[in-house]
Amino acid sequence: MNVMIVDDEPAARRVLREYCARAPDLLLTGEFGDPRKALEAIRRQPPDLLFLDIQMEGMSGLALARELDSHALPLIVFVTAYDHHALEAFEVCATDYLLKPFDEERFARTMDRVRRRAGAGGGSSREQELAQLVERLVRFRGAADARPRIMVESGGSMRMLEVAQVELVEADRNYVKLAVGQDAFHVRSTLAQAEHAVRSEPMLRISRSCLVNVNHLREVSRTPRGDFILVLAGGRTVTSSEGYREAVRSYLSRLRVGMPAGDA
User: Fold this and answer.
1) How confident is the model at residue 140 (pLDDT cuts 50, 70, 90)?
2) Complete edge-to-edge strand list for the sheet that includes strand 2-6
3) Residue 28, Cβ neighbours under 10 Å: how many?
4) Which parts of the chain are beta strand (E)?
5) Is the pTM of this model over 0.70?
């Protein structure tokens, strides 16, 4: 089977690419992080099997699925970080899914079902199943988006983090560090990409290379030169830079109740 992978997370694409390479009947013909470019490629040469991430920047997997030609519809395996409640939508049809993070055993079970479906044919029923699934997932989307999650590598495996858990995002050369309590995860990404991924949280930029989740802010003090020292719930301490001092002061002032003695 000719296979395409569409997922805007490089780590997720790598895992799928490696698993597909170990399956002798799968030939990877395309891999895309940009869903719009993927849609163009699918229209030019539809694959037999499409691994499609649901939540992507710019165009969701659901929107992409709606744009597919019903007369050349591939088998679709949705790759998703939705929680188990939203996955009830998959129980009503034969369309398969992979819940991030997944291992090779789960991938193999999914491929067994995909091969059986490929042998059974049924293009018109496949179109009907997809339409029904997309409709249900759209309804579940609000609940799933209320708890957005991101996937990171940890010790050679993949781990899901709830965005609300992320206390700190900090650039570190070609990587970005995500701090969750005492744990730190390094992701090959730009700070701008990471900032977009955690946009559901109130992130305060305290320097060119550091963002703080204000929901995890526990203590604030000042250095002799006036920069802000921020202590986070997990115990990490970071200091604002001079260039962002006024922006941090302005943000924090909006959180204050009353005026301490001597500040009037």
Assistant:
1) low
2) 27-32, 2-6, 49-53, 75-80, 96-99
3) 17
4) 2-6, 27-32, 49-53, 75-80, 96-99, 149-154, 157-162, 168-172, 175-180, 183-187, 203-207, 210-213, 217-222, 228-232, 237-239
5) no
